[in-house]
Design goal:
Blueprint lengths: L2 H20 L2 H5 L7 E2 L7 E2 H13 L9 E9 L3 E8 L1
Antiparallel strand pairs: 1-2, 3-4
Length: about 90
């Protein structure tokens, strides 16, 4: 995998957790495609901006703050155009 793709994945993960940590629902749901899916733990999947926003609101309203520190991102190519990201966070 090219260094450019790895760097792109790392930038996205940093942005993703920065948005999560800001607890900004609008920015969070806009990280997803219009029909994107967000799943947290064993909760049902949220599909689309509206449901993703509702899920984020449910999470963010019970937390006073949240902080992630991305330690390492590994990109593993699966097939022609699919990548799995393995992320270690604190």
């Amino acid at each position: 995998m090219s260094p450019e793709i790895i760097a792109k994945h790392e930038r996205f993960i940093q942005k993703y957790f920065s948005v999560v940590d800001s607890m900004d629902i609008e920015n969070f749901k806009n990280l997803f495609l219009a029909d994107g899916t967000f799943t947290l733990g064993n909760y049902p999947a949220a599909v689309g901006h509206s449901q993703v926003g509702q899920a984020a609101n449910g999470i963010f309203t019970v937390l006073s703050q949240i902080r992630h520190q991305v330690v390492k991102v590994y990109s593993v190519k699966e097939g022609e155009s699919t990548f799995n990201l393995i992320i270690f966070i604190l």
